[in-house]
Amino acid sequence: MKLSAAQGFCYRFGTGIKAGADLLVLLKSEAGYGSPRQRSAMLALRDGAKDGQLLSKSMKAEHPFFPPLLIAMTRVGEATGRLERSLLALANLYQHRLMLKRKFLTSLAWPGLQAFGGLMAISLLIWLLGVLTPPTGGEMFDTLGFGLRGTSGVLQLWAYVGIFFVIIGGMIWAFFRNLGGVQNIIPILYLIPVVGPALQTITLSRFCWTLSLALDAGLDPIRSIDLALDSTDSDYYRGGSDLARDAILGGATLSGGLKATNLFPEEFLTQVEISEISGTDAESIDRLAAEYDEKAKSAVSTISAIATGLIWLSVIVVLVFLILRMAMRIFGGYAEALEPI
């Protein structure tokens, strides 16, 4: 289930339940939203509800469509009689994640458009080299020196560009799927100046939001930490779940359980510990989540600025390289023409 679809579902469904609407009517209405897969899943929930089955159980049967966090929070809401509160809180969490994602992508739109424009200009030049014919006959002088001409040359260029982005996309996909345990380099990434701390802050913000939501819904600390670690979408963080559970079962506090994972910076653990002393777990983590929310917004701005700068720098380097290459080939052709026979 896409993040935007999950947010919309949680908001509409939570609002409907809060208003006292019939569960079957709400599920029938939800079957009119989203992709065919989403509509099918909502109809399955409606059929399950007709048979007296819990929503969380029906959601689990649709694996892997519904996010684990949504299933867990629905189960907690059903058990505590506060389903609408759990879903509306989860809608806010998903909205927060969407906001950060959109802010990042929006910042990349303009430099990405400039890069596309530069690529189109190069494509036009290559196409003209194959279409135009000099007065003396033959082919136009290859100012780029790549041997690319006409429509076939443009197709070759875009094929090279496509291969480049496929490789980049494959690397990103492999990282998020943790192929070969590649996420073990996360601590190294955090050591990169400016970028590393920003990435860590965004991850901690997501962790805090989920942890606060789970504790407020009435989940025990062990299950709350497990869900919060899972919400980071990183196997590196998920690996600390057992360590936190063992520590808490051994008598450790929430901050002690987090410390046992060896995943969190000392500053963060200190803030959690201070928050525990100043109030209940749910209230204290909620305040910490709000604090890290502001830090995450600044972190996204920082990463966006760096990514934008890298795109602009790449475009400038490529264009300057092509201009110099064209100038050298043109002047080289003049020099060759002026040499005595």
Structure description:
With 341 residues, the protein is mainly alpha-helical. The chain has a domain of 91 residues: Type II secretion system (T2SS), domain F (Receptor-associated Protein), CATH 1.20.81. Helices cover 77% and strands 0% of the residues. It contains 15 helices and no strands. Helix 9 packs antiparallel against helix 10 and helix 13 packs antiparallel against helix 14. It starts with a helix and ends with a helix. The model has no long low-confidence stretch (mean pLDDT 84). Belongs to the GSP F family. It is a multi-pass membrane protein.
* Percentage of residues in strands: under 5%
Low-confidence region ranges: none
Count of discrete alpha- or pi-helical segments spanning 4 or more residues: 15
Element pattern in H and E: HHHHHHHHHHHHHHH
Backbone CA Rg? 27 Å
Instruction: Describe the global form.
Output: elongated
Please report the total strand number as a whole number: 0
What is the CATH level 1 assignment of the domain at 3-93? Mainly Alpha
Structural class comes to: mainly alpha
CATH topology of the domain at 3-93: Receptor-associated Protein
Largest sheet: none
Mean pLDDT: 84
Cα separation of the termini: 73 Å
CATH architecture of the domain at 3-93: Up-down Bundle
In CATH, what is the homologous superfamily of the domain at 3-93? Type II secretion system (T2SS), domain F
Helical amount = over 70%
